[in-house]
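Predict structure. Chain length: 801.
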Amino acid sequence: MCIGETKPTAGDVKRADALRFTERDAQLFMEGSHSRLFEKLGAHICVGRDVSNGSGPTPGCFFSLWAPGASAVYVVGCFNNWESVHEMELVSPACGIWSLFVAGVGTGALYKYRIVCKNGEVLEKSDPMAFEGEAIRDEGRMFPPASRVTDLSKHTWQDSKRRQMKSREDREDRRSKPMAVYEVHLGSFLRRRTEATPSPTEIACITGACSMKSDDPREHDVSRRASGRRRDTPVEATGVMDTTNPYVLGSIGVGICPVADRGRPERTGTWLSYEELGREIGCYAKAMGFTAVELLPIMEHPFYGSWGYQVTGFFAPTSRYGRVADLMAMIETLHSLDMDVYLDWVPAHFSLDEHGLIKFCGEAQYEYINPMRGMHPDWGTAIFNYSLPQVQSFLLSSARFWLDVYHVDGLRVDAVASMLYYSYSRPHGEWIGNEDGSEENWDAVRFFQKLNSMVHNECPACITIAEESSGWPQVTGRVNDPGAMQQPGDEGGSGNSRGMSSGSSFHALDKHKALGFDFKWDLGWMNDTLQYFSKDPIHRSFPDSHSLVTQKFTNGDWSGLIFPLSHDEVVHGKHSLLGRMPGRGLEDRLSHWRTLLAYQYGCPGKKLLFMGQEFAQWQEWQHEQELCWYLPRDVPLWSTAQRWTRALNQLYRTNRALHDCDSQAGFQWIDKESVEHSMLAFIRWSRSKKDAILAVYNFTPVARDQYQMMLPFPVGTRCVVLACSDAQVFGGEGSSPISGCPEATVGSIGLENFEQPTFFTVPLDETEKGIGNTINGMSSNYSSLHLHVPGATAAFLKLCI
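Prediction complete.
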């Protein structure tokens, strides 16, 4: 008996006969449309007949495997001393399905498949359909990890009402709701640590590193450097949750930090469990105002440094953070906080570890045979063969497994572009295209169409998100919709330069390029935005630079787009978001960082922010260390930066104009031509046209006095400043964005006890020449608004219409 194994009892509900591969299963499997293989393949605790002694119904485990290239398969494990005594039966020669019931095997038993290849070679493989793997603690271990028999039916979910409510939402309902996603890597969010707490000198080195004036010893004085202009501004601010929630904003020097962080040593140590991480991440993200958590891949992966993107177990959560029950408890905790949970899912490629999918029966089974199609030159991984219907069924089942069994709310599909093109990341002459020479992988297109149709029809409470970088024109177009070429959510303009060959001939499902995703990461927006904000402000005033933050919103529909500031851009020498910002000192860099986030939250589209960037972590992300929580905890300027992100999330969630109409009907340019001054202004409209918010940006450190804008509202319309990035509570100087205002009222973004600078309500002035016009269905005259806009500042003003 294995350590930790629980012997089955006759009371187990499943019977082995119900787990056998039927003719219907075989038909769906060979068509590439079987999405529930996890109910038939793998290892399942059940009651069956022990053929070795002819006894009646006996508790045990039913093993089933797809191995078409094997001449014999044995189940070996701790229950038979890893000896080849349990030979599987080829129950479906046409499909290559092998099965065997082994009496007495219980939950927790370790096992592998010993495969005798047709050439006589003997391989030991983990179960591709295993629900759990042996705990990975030492990546340099001599023996590859085994699979573990697991019963997934023990957890009783408490979120049925939530899923039923979400399943009744249609596509447009979801696109009209706020989506602010917190992207997390579980292994480096927070750790159980052993090192010493950083000293004031260490903190001073961090703050001093942000300054170009390091020759001045006063720049390394923590109390002076951290407090800056805010030293005499005491602020008490509490969180938006109830008083029992430990994630609250305390004094000016204490930001929101995980409970487990307070008073503990810093930075490195052992991983927390899924259950612990669920509590820490959930409460923190909730207090910060995010609506969802997206996890970097948690499927089993041998190499921790791959961040989860080189998978061996497509049905097993990584064992680094605990068992299956722990992950279910984590997701349950996040749902109880009304947080959606999205998983990064990787159907593009898989790990080359010998115990995994590679050459599963001694020859290519899951991957393409030819390495010019089957091996990825950049990542050192194997590429799935999407032309095989059995592989499509395997991947469809993996997607549905996480949605059905673990109740996740959506999948972000990684590396979509690498699947769509045979030529992806390959020089000319090193890839094999279609017969007509075209480079599109139409089998992958068909797979995406099947995937999204399956999710929308069978898992209506869930969404799919594409990470696609090539400009494929119909990522979020509806599948089998005659109007798919004009569907909401896709980019305008010419789209992809790699057009479909006119000679291509495929069945109706493939005759258009619509893939059917609900949302798409707009990587072009991220690259353009970070390129712009990395420039010295003097270089932002050139037309080519200014267009980086305007051309995206010249035309098009953005209702299916997510604007990410993701993990890819804060690692491998790219610096953190704060580290990318120009400026002579920390305050300068933080002011540009605040305008960057304000620009992201003002743009029409959904939001995603990678962990640590919400409090402007100076150090770029390192997966072997936890986040620098001591910055928002101990250094005032970082706690005020964190407060700005929280304010933006609240502003975004509570104002319909900022989230319920991410299309041209909800966006109107007011000023995109102030190239020389690097100024932007636009209005965000709600779908009903009853709410409007003016967003104003000054991307240079030079204040603009009497900045005049022509607004499409009648004279006398009033506007209220909701948030200004230069407010002292967010680490700014506290300059008012309004000049020459005759009356003052206090504006608020709804965050209790935030000490705002005095914000003003101002009437719009009559222009020198009234202009009659109809804008957004509203007949009005233009009026003028004069603002004082501090340097490197963003402001949001609510128009009282």
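Summary: Residues 208 and 220 are 5 Å apart (CA to CA).
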